[in-house]
Amino acid sequence: MHVLVTGAAGMIGRKLVDRLARDRSLNGQAIDKLTLLDIVPAQMPLSVQAIIKTADLSSPGAAEEVIATRPDVIFHLAGIVSGEAETDFDKGYRVNLDGTRNLLEAIRMIGDGYKPKVIYTSSIAVFGAPFPESIPDDFHLTPLTSYGAQKVIGETLLADYTRRGFLSGVGIRLPGITVRPGKPNKAASGFYSGIIREPLAGREAMLPVADDTTNTHASPRAAAGFLVHGASLRPEQLGPRINLTMPGVCCTVGEQIAALRRVAGDRVAARIRREPDEFIMRIVAGWPSRFDATRARELGFTAENSFDEIIRVHIEDDLAGDFVR
Amino acid sequence: MHVLVTGAAGMIGRKLVDRLARDRSLNGQAIDKLTLLDIVPAQMPLSVQAIIKTADLSSPGAAEEVIATRPDVIFHLAGIVSGEAETDFDKGYRVNLDGTRNLLEAIRMIGDGYKPKVIYTSSIAVFGAPFPESIPDDFHLTPLTSYGAQKVIGETLLADYTRRGFLSGVGIRLPGITVRPGKPNKAASGFYSGIIREPLAGREAMLPVADDTTNTHASPRAAAGFLVHGASLRPEQLGPRINLTMPGVCCTVGEQIAALRRVAGDRVAARIRREPDEFIMRIVAGWPSRFDATRARELGFTAENSFDEIIRVHIEDDLAGDFVR
């Protein structure tokens, strides 16, 4: 089986590639070819030989070239993030919309019965406030960012190309991915990971929002798991509604901190400094916080059961089992 | 005020142009320039001088050329219909998606504070079965046709370009438009108009579905009214959710026929011949039949109050007040 991962150099891309390289198989079939595509060279996984390609899917011919190698399963993660899509309107539409459309078109243009599985990473940014207490699976899509709009369009194209029989798609709407490894970034959502990652590394973290701020989280490991599970679903299980809101742990920032205290102790939790930031509070207030995710759960998607578990996954996967006490 | 109508040669385009030409004003401002664009020359309205342009918005440069004339209000109706978008995949995406995106991009590229109103004709084809008893305003968009997918994408682009301040958009999801004047066509939905129009013209009409088949209808006059009313709404009334499901008369085919009997008599209604067609029944079963349209009603959009009224509008507007008894 030939598996292609686009956006393979990104954080979730790397987690997915590690998982695929460890499993060495997908849906019970051996992975005998793994192509990693990104605009910068993706890291070679430890345990398998992969083909590393650098290309921008929004450039003419780039999608055709990689699709000519006829991957059986395509994990399409490539794209620019929310903040950049908002500050650079042209780039957001070029990369996130045209890049995705080019990929789907390249598949359609093969035209000899080639019909790969396409697992598309979407986002809860497809939703826009105001929200009900918990967002049902059949809630409308009214994004309040260009990134969210591009994800709605990607989902809609994926569903139509699937319905027409050109490919077999599933859209995975990721919740907040926590704990993100690496350095603090400027994303407004950065504190959700920062208040766990930084204290565990012995550093102080700033909390810009109130303790009752609520969000739904899943670990990077769970995100890779969503994508792998998405690849296993049969068209008859999915029906025509192929874009799915993923489950996660819904909790307040206060509950996140309590979990950190349970897992890592008072000294670690004491490294969080409360520094209210009106600007970030306003942005976060417009984000969805809770989802039913009924269909995804029924289809067998699973996330962590508690925020304690999310912290333990971070310690295991990104800190080699240890932290600064 | 300069008003541009794209798709001005189509049925709803003609009804809208007639209305604008009769009113000679929009939102209390005189229309001093009216541009009618379509791929074929639109008909010159009787009472005003209009500029007739033929262009395909999906062709390079076409949108830029018409937008360079800086219309204040743009009614964007241009597009190919559901059946054609399904049989010709390429043409559907080229005309309905690229044509719309080109128009929005041409507006954005002016870039000197130019910010026209854009009234976009969308469709209830954005929804896909299965449906609740009545579709609420916050129901998700899972189209089951390429046409519906293209309308979802058009709505999403319109909302994002509006949010970013490039234009001031409103999307008008039209219900079934009945009674369509003119010749019978091959559209699966053609019978909804055919069973009224043909008997009133003294001809026999075929009814391919059961009498309890339910649909929501508004007249072509009401459709033109939706668009004109859409142009009058201020951004602060609309908020970020600018795509609206329009109201209409929800009734069964049996109720349509009973209305025809009341309005035109038994002899006219007797010209309907029941000829069940499994193929058409199956298609129609996948279409939405009833909508809440709560927000649109609250925003002042109005349709007819009964199917009797819809028939009378047809007799007045398309049959000069008379019919074959």
From TrEMBL, chains A, B:
GO molecular function per UniProt: oxidoreductase activity
Start and end residues of each NAD-dependent epimerase/dehydratase domain: 3-203
rRNA processing among keywords: no
UniProt superkingdom: Bacteria
Record keywords, A-Z: Carbohydrate metabolism, NADP
NCBIfam families, A to Z: ErythonDh
Stated name of the protein: NAD-dependent epimerase
